[in-house]
Amino acid sequence: MKKAFLAALTVLIGAGITVYSQGAPQAPAAGAPGASGGRGGSGRGPGRGAGRGGPINPPADATPEELRQDIQQLNDQVQQLRATLAGPPKPPVPPPCIPVNPNATPEARDLLKKLCDVSGKGILTGQHNFPNQRNLDTERIHDATGKYPAIWGSDFGFTDGEDEDAITHRDLMIEEAKKQYAAGSIIYLCWHMLRPTEDEPGQPNISWSGSVQAKLTDDQWLELITSDSALHQRWERYMVQPPYI
Length: 245
What we know:
Blueprint: H1 2-8, E1 10-13, E2 16-19, H2 64-86, H3 106-118, E3 126-128, H4 136-145, E4 151-155, H5 170-182, E5 186-190, H6 207-212, H7 218-224, H8 230-240
Parallel strand pairs: 3-4, 4-5
Antiparallel strand pairs: 1-2
């Protein structure tokens, strides 16, 4: 078993390849790298040594532990050789700054280019603003830092009255989004909607957990995804034409 292992051991080290035949491995010639357990060798006597980067020649009576140590040393040398040949690591190639959608608008293409330009160079900060407060929190950031966040965001809202999440002045929120875009901000909008079983507006301090975060029953989910059901059609109308916009 040991001889078969030695016969199969092929080592790529330095400038050459050492292949062990079926016979006992030949000791390196006098004066050859590793003949006396040179620098980097295991130091376990003649015939085993390896000059730095040279071959390792385990004797036929090597123990399993000695063979394991030799293999580990060879692996280390191979890794060093690979690192030397590979040279310094190359920076990753950035992905092409091309929209997936070939029909992307000029505005979408400009935004993608802006994101590509900053990639690996910096971080874009953003600030969410409650829909009925328009830019209150963005202005607070400016007051504290002297700079505006790169991203302005808001919500279409879901409550009534003058609550911070109210839908009462959605038109003013949309006008604020246009104003922020004109000033150079990146715009994001979200919509924390009520459940499709309920009508807007919701109630402050109640509808967030009572509807926005609430669940539908299994039967309601089934009806919602059934295209000819009353709930599904109601939901489609709700999505196409949100109230109060």
